[in-house]
Amino acid sequence: MLTKNENVLKWVREMVSLCNPNKVIWIDGSEEQLNELRQQAVESGELIKLNEEKLPGCYLHRTKQNDVARVEDRTFICCEKEEDAGPTNNWCNPSEMYNKLRRLFDGVMKDRTMYIIPYSMGPIGSKMAKVGVEITDSIYVVLNMNIMTRIGKVAFENLDESSNDFVRGLHSKADIDPNNRYIAHFPQDNTIWSINSAYGGNVLLGKKCFALRIASYQGKNEGWMAAHMLIVGIQNPKGEVKYVAAAFPSACGKTNLAMLIPPSIYRNEGYKIWTVGDDIAWLRQGEDGRLYAINPENGFFGVAPGTNEHSNYNALASTKKNTIFTNVALNLNDNTVWWEGLSENPPENAIDWKGNPWNGKTATEKAAHPNSRFSAPARNCPCLSSEFDNVKGVPLSAIVFGGRRAKTTPLVYESFNWQHGVFVGATMASETTAAATGKVGVVRRDPMAMLPFCGYNMGDYFKQWIVMGNKLKNNAPKIFNVNWFRTNKDGQFIWPGYGDNMRVLLWILDRCEGKVGAKETAIGFVPNASDINIKGIDITNNELEEILSIDKGLWKEEAEGIEVFFSKFKNKLPEELKQELENLRKRLA
Ligand code: GTP
Ligand code: SPV
Ligand code: MN
């Protein structure tokens, strides 16, 4: 036992009696204990040890083929009133869900060890941080939580002995039965129960379950916000660092933007990029009135395919030690890993993510699953911000929303003001990716990239954003929207993206400082093409004009789509957003 907190101990006793494990181990966070677990996992085949010279401390894990992504249709918000979960969540009455899941958890660990993992979301000692305890029967979960959060005895430093303010997470892989898979959240009880999965966002309960779904609800009650956002610092040649937070849906480029390598013209001038976070931000007004952000996580659970030295050097570098790879291919030549897009020459002697022999010369199937991931410690990242552990977080100059839109949305535009910016975020849409099960490439509304991650009624979440703006007043960051994914007639991306997104970030910061003009359009302020620096990249002026252009016909259709989407929220839709839709229509007329 690592704590005297009676609330923790009582809950643990209850969960032990429910799951009936044959052994209980408290995870203290010591390397000794973790090493023993690594060894056990290698012996049982749960982990494969990789080349110790090339990838020290790294392991490969394969999940079951039916368990490779978040399952949104089996994810529930369980609160008393259905209306409080809202139209974008699956709802279930809490006692009904507890009863159903209690039957599944009953005795589920009888031949297994139960691990109790205390963890902190956010830097130890930060007032913005929160404590969680995850109970699990999976060593993979323990070892991943060790990378993704701050685990062990230290976590309890953030929890007073009498406090009840910790999130109770219960996870069992059970039989990994997809028909009995549930990811259930009980926001009113600070509780998450997850069963029959052993994959990422379904089971690393500190991540999407706590740091977004439960935290968004806590934020509503406590006056702060949880957002699906990266946090990046942009240092200019004078050494000044400005921070930007950006929300893109899953697998739409957060990790990439957070770690981008500036194009050489900027590097040579002395510009630098610093990563604070790549997936989740907790936002709170600071003492000086500005909006501050912390990254509650301690590692990166990044998409592997497409990651290479050129597309994301820093992410790749982060995976070179103490990393767990999930569902990538095993390169048998040197016992390392491979995935599509890592290198131009696929290995000829490999094992694919399903565990079958794979030869890059003859293969017809993918070596790595499209949603295969690496769990890498943040401290490995060459461009990790010096403010990563800052207990106060970093002050934001700009907030950016974005998604994958082949047409309609320009490369970048600025909202007219905070309220309009909230509208821009609330009406985001994006083509679906492999990060969740279901069809890929379908356009869906994904407000603030939070569609699958809001722990209460999304209409109330919009309201929370408007309330925050009223508190921030003149200190509010400016709000922008970006789209790296406009395509040409042949379906190819027009904008080079990746490191070159720096060019757009700099326009954004210039706007924040009032250094550059813009065109006022029906949807917001769009750059003059001459203000986006395209020196050294393979894009013509005409192409740039094209991706900055706005097709009023498409936007009128967009307004129709927004109205349909908004109508779902009934009386929960803030008046301010109705007004913004009307304003947009007037400007388009
Ligand atoms: P989650 O971890 O699921 O939240 O994803 P993410 O938002 O962090 O996405 P990530 O940065 O991992 O990128 C996902 C995919 O988008 C990868 O295949 C990238 O190669 C691709 N991608 C990222 N940035 C760009 C870009 O600027 N342009 C293009 N065309 N593709 C990009
Ligand atoms: C996402 O899907 O947005 C992720 C991966 O970051 S997961 O942890 O599975 O949610
Ligand atoms: Mn994410």
Q: How many extended strands?
A: 31
- The CATH level-2 architecture of the largest domain is identified as Alpha-Beta Complex
Q: Tell me the Rg in angstroms.
A: 23 Å
Percent helix, as a range, is 25-40%
Keywords:
single chain, 589 residues, alpha+beta, Phosphoenolpyruvate Carboxykinase, domain 1, Phosphoenolpyruvate Carboxykinase, domain 3, Phosphoenolpyruvate Carboxykinase, domain 2, nine-stranded mixed β-sheet, 31 strands, 28% helix, binds guanosine-5'-triphosphate, binds sulfopyruvate, binds manganese (II) ion
Molecular structure report:
The structure is a single chain. With 589 residues, this protein is of the alpha+beta class. It has 3 domains: 6-46 and 75-222, Phosphoenolpyruvate Carboxykinase, domain 1 (3-Layer(aba) Sandwich); 227-295 and 388-588, Phosphoenolpyruvate Carboxykinase, domain 3 (Alpha-Beta Complex), CATH 3.90.228.20; 299-380, Phosphoenolpyruvate Carboxykinase, domain 2, CATH 2.170.8.10. It has 16 helices and 31 strands. The strands form 6 sheets. Strands 1, 4, 5, 6, 7, 8, 9, 10 and 11 form a 9-stranded mixed sheet that branches. Strands 12, 13, 14, 15, 16, 17, 25, 26 and 29 form a 9-stranded mixed sheet that branches. Strands 2-3-19-24-18 form a 5-stranded mixed sheet, with helices on one face. A hairpin with an 8-residue loop joins strand 6 and strand 7. The longest helix has 17 residues, at 206-222. The radius of gyration is 23 Å and the shape is globular. The chain starts with 5 loop residues before the first helix and ends with a helix. It binds guanosine-5'-triphosphate, sulfopyruvate and manganese (II) ion. Sulfopyruvate binds at residues 70, 200-201, 207-208, 250, 279, 301, 435. Residues 70, 200-201, 207-208, 250, 279, 301, 435 line the site of sulfopyruvate.
